Amino acid sequence: MDYRIGFSDSNEISNGSCTSCIETLSTPKPPNPEISALRQLSKSLESIFESPDFDYFADAKITISASNREVPVHRCILSARSSFFKAMFSGSAAKEKDAKFELKQLAKDYDVGFDSLVAVLAYLYSGKVRPLPDGVCVCADEDCSHVACRVAVDFMLEVLYASFTFQVPELVALYQRHLLDILDIVAIDDILVVLSVANMCDKACERLFARCIKIIVESDVDIVTLDKALPQHIVKQITDSRLEYGLETPESPDDAHALHYAVAYCDAKTATELLNLGIADVNLRNSRGYTVLHVAAMRKEPKIIVSLLTKGARPSDLTSDGRKALQISKTYQGFRLP
């Protein structure tokens, strides 16, 4: 074997002298064999999950009825990676060949979509957090950076909750950190959703929970909105903290603006009937600077939005952070690339 790495394979003879031609280029360091082996293992396991060629070997399926989709899985791999799946697959019903498990029965407290489920399962197979598929965290607002819009936040929360449910602590920690990094630029209404999911994850998301509580306590979110979005013990914690810090909280639907309340929480028929009475100013702003149309844009109920526009609501009005109702609606609307 020739060990002369970095030298020329011939000698140059000139004027009776002999000079060796030495390569000055450095030789790349060979990869660590153990790391290479682990990468290959990860790649092989990932292919089992991703390639349809391996669906034949799958012995169970997780179904998502809401989107009429299913994901073939391999019980031995998931059982080895997650104590949740090990316990689930050990049950008598689960021992049936090609057993199916409805996702909503596994993750009961928060809706988890197909893309979020795939993200968690792909990690369990490969040990890698793979890049997001195109369009998964993209809202319909062309001017949005898609870093902290509702669509992006929803995806992160779904993965966080699924990771907690399936007992994958390292993925919980990763997505908790992602959310903590963007929390300062998340819309205050979306912070309520983050807080709700952090509460579901209990001690696994203590830092995220505490940070959300602090933000909500210092915000102008009214008591009616808190009551609708959060469990009562958390509402009490927030109101008690506000009293302790001398912060005021609106205490009735009147204080929170009744028309805003109706548009946000009542069914479309009741809300439109109230609007038809014509007894309230549809362009009135609440304590947070939102018009009724701004609130309706978050809910995305076409009947209510049309009724507001016919009653004189101004689509050009801006929120305190410079958004029109159309922009608000777009950030709450997912967009999928073809």
Could you explain how this protein is built, in words?
With 338 residues, the protein is mostly helical. It folds into three domains: 37-131, 2-Layer Sandwich (Potassium Channel Kv1.1, Chain A), CATH 3.30.710.10; 135-251, no CATH class; 259-331, Serine Threonine Protein Phosphatase 5, Tetratricopeptide repeat, CATH 1.25.40. Helix content is 49%, strand content 8%. It contains 16 helices and five strands. It has helices at 33-50, 75-81, 83-89, 103-106, 114-126, 150-165, 169-182, 188-200, 206-217, 223-229, 232-244, 258-265, 268-277, 292-299, 302-310, 325-331; strands spanning 7-14, 17-22, 60-64, 69-73, 99-102. Strand 3 (60-64) and strand 4 (69-73) form a beta hairpin. Helix 1 (33-50) runs antiparallel to helix 5 and helix 14 packs parallel to helix 16. The longest helix has 18 residues, at 33-50.
Outline:
Keywords: ANK repeat, Metal-binding, Zinc, Zinc-finger. This protein is 49% helix and 8% strand.
